[in-house]
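*** Protein under study ***
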Amino acid sequence: MERTLWVVGLALVCVLAAWGMWVGWRHRGGRQSSLPELPTVPNTLGEVRTPPLTALYVSTTTAGHWQDRIVARGLGVRADALVRLTDDGILIDRDGADPIFVPVQDLIEVTTAPGIAGKVMAQADGILIIRWRLGSSELDSGLRADDRDSQAEFLVAAKDLLAGNPGKSEEATT
């Protein structure tokens, strides 16, 4: 009988913890509801600058605050993604979630970091970080690329795009 009470008590604690996390997630989304809607994906994207990058979309956070996860507007949904870099911006096409399109005029920086909310890597460049503007907010979206060489190529091409260089980067096409 005592063992049954322990099992029931532990199950109750687990259910309460899950309920608390769900309530916290919903409250966080409510606090972030002032974020504007995400930009719509254009019907046609500009010139492709690098082959698509397969990655895991980890999360989006407030820029510079790697643990302040954004859950509003569907940005909290972790998913496999295909990331395209074009002259018009970056498209993060997530499996099972709405795509995220970052127009080139809203791109601030593309860099790497050892982690972002939901994933920390041992390597200093383990997570690809896309810093961008959504309305008056600056956000960091983190991706863990499946292939580090492809990530390096994407990073070079993105920095080239941000520098205002027309056409494809020579380094990105080799």
